[in-house]
Q: What sequence folds into this?
């Protein structure tokens, strides 16, 4: 088994005239927690959706676990979308049944234990839950699988700061150690200490990919501070309103 | 325990310094068992790989010893722990003299003041 989990070369995606990804080259190893960081519209969600097989790239190549996107890649990827997709009449326990049927690696007991520690009542129907609680249920579904690659698209955006810490520790204590977690977000300061690596995406290109410790060592500042600096400069350059 | 992480330096380095402090102050006594990487990482809310690196640093400094069967222990060598203690003390003293210099106090004057304070205690 090779150490490389994600490989992409020259990945491009256009929506009509708009180029969402413009030649992404990326290699990510197993057993890493990686932040996919970039401002709104930089291509984070597009990239994740290509890994999941929800979008077809316009050109370029992607290999997950050594294979092109398909049946195998879908079986090893656990995906947390950036929006809800469940019927609201379902209770969390109904969703657990559904996931248990769909995914061989779904651990129902673990899901129930995670609900208990997150303070979610699994017999409540989705429509009676707050936005933050629904997000927690989604996270439970995703993290209770023993996947190779967890793709988390904005997992902490909708919850309060106290719940954020709790969700991060849930991710830390529940991910499969040989697996990799890719977290997209713009709330960098909240997740920086759990990351091994940071990828900066700008206008559909990878402009930086390095370990968090290397960034701190060479730049003498946090990833959050570096991000603000790089993307503020961008805002000023284009600042002729 | 309470972990304090600042923005300007690598996280693993700060973790290893804080663990070293716990060893020196006796929270983890000589020859005692250290918690697992996972437990410490969860407690500090950091990535397990980062905590692993912090613990490797403690091993290379001789403060921690890895044992295949029993996990990771604090060294039993009192001299190593004492050397670490002196190194930390020297850093605090250097900072102290720098702060005194900022107040316009020479080293001699600062030491005099320190002695006076010691007598009053």
A:
């Amino acid at each position: 088994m090779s150490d490389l989990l994600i490989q992409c070369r020259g990945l491009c995606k256009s929506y009509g005239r708009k180029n969402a990804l413009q030649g992404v080259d990326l290699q990510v190893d197993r057993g890493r927690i990686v932040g996919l960081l970039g401002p709104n519209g930089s291509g984070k969600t597009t990239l994740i959706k290509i890994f999941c097989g929800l979008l077809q790239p316009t050109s370029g190549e992607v290999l997950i676990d050594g294979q092109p996107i398909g049946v195998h890649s879908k079986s090893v990827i656990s995906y947390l979308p950036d929006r809800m997709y469940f019927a609201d009449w379902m209770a969390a326990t109904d969703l657990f049944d559904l996931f248990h049927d769909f995914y061989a690696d779904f651990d129902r007991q673990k899901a129930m234990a995670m609900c208990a520690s997150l303070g979610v009542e699994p017999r409540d129907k989705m429509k009676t839950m707050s936005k933050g609680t629904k997000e927690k249920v989604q996270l439970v579904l995703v993290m209770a699988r023993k996947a190779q690659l967890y793709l988390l698209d904005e997992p902490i955006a909708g919850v309060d700061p106290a719940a954020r810490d709790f969700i991060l520790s849930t991710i830390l204590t529940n991910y499969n150690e040989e697996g990799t977690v890719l977290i997209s977000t713009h709330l960098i300061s909240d997740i920086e200490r759990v990351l091994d690596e940071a990828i900066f995406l700008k206008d559909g290109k990878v402009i930086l990919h390095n370990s968090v410790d290397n960034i701190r060592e060479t730049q003498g500042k946090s990833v959050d501070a570096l991000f603000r600096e790089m993307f503020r400069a961008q805002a000023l350059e284009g600042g002729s309103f | 325990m309470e972990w304090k992480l600042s923005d300007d330096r690598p996280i693993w380095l700060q973790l290893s310094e804080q663990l070293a402090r716990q060893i020196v102050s006796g929270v983890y006594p000589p020859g005692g068992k250290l918690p697992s990487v996972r437990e410490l990482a969860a407690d500090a809310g950091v990535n397990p790989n980062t905590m692993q690196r912090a613990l490797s640093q403690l091993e290379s400094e001789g403060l921690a010893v890895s044992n295949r069967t029993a996990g990771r222990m604090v060294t039993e060598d009192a001299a190593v722990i004492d050397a670490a203690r002196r190194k930390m003390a020297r850093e605090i003293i250097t900072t102290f003299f720098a702060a005194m210099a900022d107040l316009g106090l020479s080293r001699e004057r600062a030491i005099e003041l320190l002695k006076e304070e010691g007598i009053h205690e």
